[in-house]
User: What shape does this take?
Amino acid sequence: MDIIFLGTSSGSPTKSRNVSGIALKKAGVRPWILIDCGEGTQHRLLHTSLSLHSLQTICITHVHGDHCYGLPGLLASAALTGRSAPLTIIGPAALQGWIAATQEATHLTLGYSLHFIDVATLTGVVAVEGVDISVLPLSHRVPSFGYEFVETGQPRKLDVDKLKADGIASGPEWGRLQRGEQVILADGRVLDGHDYLLASRAGCKVIVGGDNDTPALLAGRLGSAQVLVHEATFTQAIANKVGPGPQHSSAMAIAQFAAQASVPNLILTHFSPRYKDGGAGLTIQDIEQEARAHYHGRLFLARDLDVFHLNREGELKRIQHGPPPSRG
Assistant: This one.
């Protein structure tokens, strides 16, 4: 799977960070999923190869503006570019009325249909091309949710050892067997491809949390997840000064939880604008230093337009760095 960060700031943008937006897709394919859509998300998309025609689902974690104010503009742009395929939006029920009111007030006509799913009532799995989506309730000032993404449709590999043991030489027949076809060999043997296929491997699993002050709410779903993407809005010292009202996680809180849950890969995002990308005062490096003191797995602090790739072995790598951060 590939994870592309479109915005990594909380509340308001900075010179180098837009507000929340994440794209997720299976590597090598065009369809993709958008998680949150803060103001300016569609502008960030212009710096990627992602197309609004290939967007299959939008998942909104909660109704705060830094996570959804970009939605009307993105939907309008998709219409202007000629999109006709239906689009699914999973999120709080209030979004449907808000989008409808915006369409009426601004005379916005979409050339495609919207399918809304109320995240609060979703108990099963939403299956889209190549990915199963399910939700996880979290804790914030308004109802907030995380999303679990599990890769599906993994190709089964040939059992090469069995083929060799049965004296079946490598050749065109192997390709047909891998497709599950029936093959008749020159010696008259009839082979069924399904008899020579190994069990499908488990798909990649990524969990993306919305705003959340209680990381432990994710504990029951992290067992087989290779990646957790979670907010780290403050360092603990600033969180103590701000108080519990904002209901966000500190770097220490999420790092301690990820360590206890043995999460192999942790990506932190949604940083308060008070943390600069360098220079004097509070910096993003303060968040990183605090997290590394409590978590010793693969830790990444996301930057806008960073691209991460999760391979079949569960190893996460940053394969593209966003532009150098501004110090403003």
